[in-house]
Amino acid sequence: MHENKVIDESKQGEALMIESTVKGGKKLFLESYGCAMNFSDSEIVASILKDKGFSTTQDFFEADVIFVNTCAIREGAEQRVRKRLTEYRKAKKTNPDLIIGVLGCMAERLKSQFLEEEKLVDIVVGPDAYRSLPELIEIAETGQKAVNVLLSKEETYADIAPVRLGSNGVTAFISITRGCDNMCAFCVVPFTRGRERSRDPETIVNEAKELFEQGYREVTLLGQNVDSYLWTGGGLKKENPSTEELQNATTFAQLLEKVALIHPDLRVRFSTSHPKDMLDEVLYTIAKYDNICSYVHLPVQSGNSRILEMMNRGYTREWYLNRIAAIRRIIPDAGISMDIITGFCSETEKEHQDTLSLMEDVKYDFGYMFSYSERPKTLAERKYKDDVPSEVKSRRLQEIVDLQVKHSAFRTKQGVGKVHRVLVEGTSKKSKEELFGRNSQNTVVVFPKENYKKGDYVNVMVESCTGGTLIGKAV
Ligand code: 5AD
Ligand code: SF4
After folding, report:
1. Does 298 sit in the ligand 1 pocket, CB within 6 Å?
2. Per-residue pLDDT at 20 exceeds 60
3. What Å distances lie between residue 411 and 333, 335, 366, 408, CA to CA?
4. pTM of the entire structure?
5. Can you name the residues that pair with 445 across neighbouring β-strands?
């Protein structure tokens, strides 16, 4: 997924099939959709089940339990899951004891309604209830339906060592917060993932240390809004921390620093930043440490202040551009990417042009672009009309994607003729004789293998490029 410099909607929500584990010689098939947080959650699920003595399969016809970890962010993501469930049904015909479970955001959104809509689903489990999976499997084995969609104010799975699934052995995700308190008008996440809570920094640093000792060379710290990470001794951020509590607290900038100090050869990335909360302090920390990558994913959603206000994003176009200016000032070589939603309720042609002109100003390295999809229960669904016709949404999206293709090519070209420090992630898809990795800005770099291998840092002189990939030779 990361190899696409410009990523449109069709590339999102690609499923990763994962081998995992099940009880007593039984087999589990686990599939994940959606964001990095969901993939990270699947690694927690795998760990919980492995502790119950489990084994693995990649063929769902062979499975005793099928779990699908779902996404609810857009209607399209849910449709993909429903389609997949109809395929699982075929396996249920040949194996009547097969247990099918739906996990994650779509499970949380639909709760027990899922069991009525999708008759062959046996288990429904929300993102904060994975510790109860072993018991829920036991219930389902007796032929009853099992549901746990309780959201928690404390759960961070801090003590669970994730089983790294589909891993390249070089890069890994570590979740640092769960949930979201922002209430963007379009977004279902606050309803599916609950209140925001931060994870104990000590457990984060220990997880990163262990990964480094196992040979991993890059960690990505994950949260819906990493900038609002704050550890004040308890999981849920206190509403009004006292001055003393704040003095003893760990902020996101401090957490980044703690992880960066583990080892200079451990690269640190993070996602996602929020324009309203991103502080210069974080940018200075990135600039200070060579091993914190010069890359910021800063979703803008729209380039028009009226739409941003309706979206309840908490910033204006000017504020956002000021944050971009701060990134360029403090980290001059930074790669910057975005998320954009086009066709939000009442968006006019002129307001769409504002999004295009903001893109012109920033010239993002790459981006994730979507057309607005109304989600049940959200502020926008309750307050506004989803009134931009779908042809208009598609046309606007195409204009945004086309412009981003141009900007990605422009940014990639700027990397030609320079030496890039690349962390090797594996063999290039196109040729066994070539390796691929990423530079600090998150751009993919391909070069002849020679004697280098996965996990090495290699200085690559870049000689040419395609639209989004740099091509060169080790120096
Ligand atoms: N419709 C379209 N895109 C959405 N996103 C979130 N909610 C919606 C929605 N209802 C996009 C935003 C967010 C990204 C993860 O998904 O751009 O940043
Ligand atoms: Fe991730 Fe959001 Fe989709 Fe949930 S709804 S899986 S948090 S992208």
Report:
1. no
2. no
3. 11, 9, 9, 5
4. 0.93
5. 437, 470
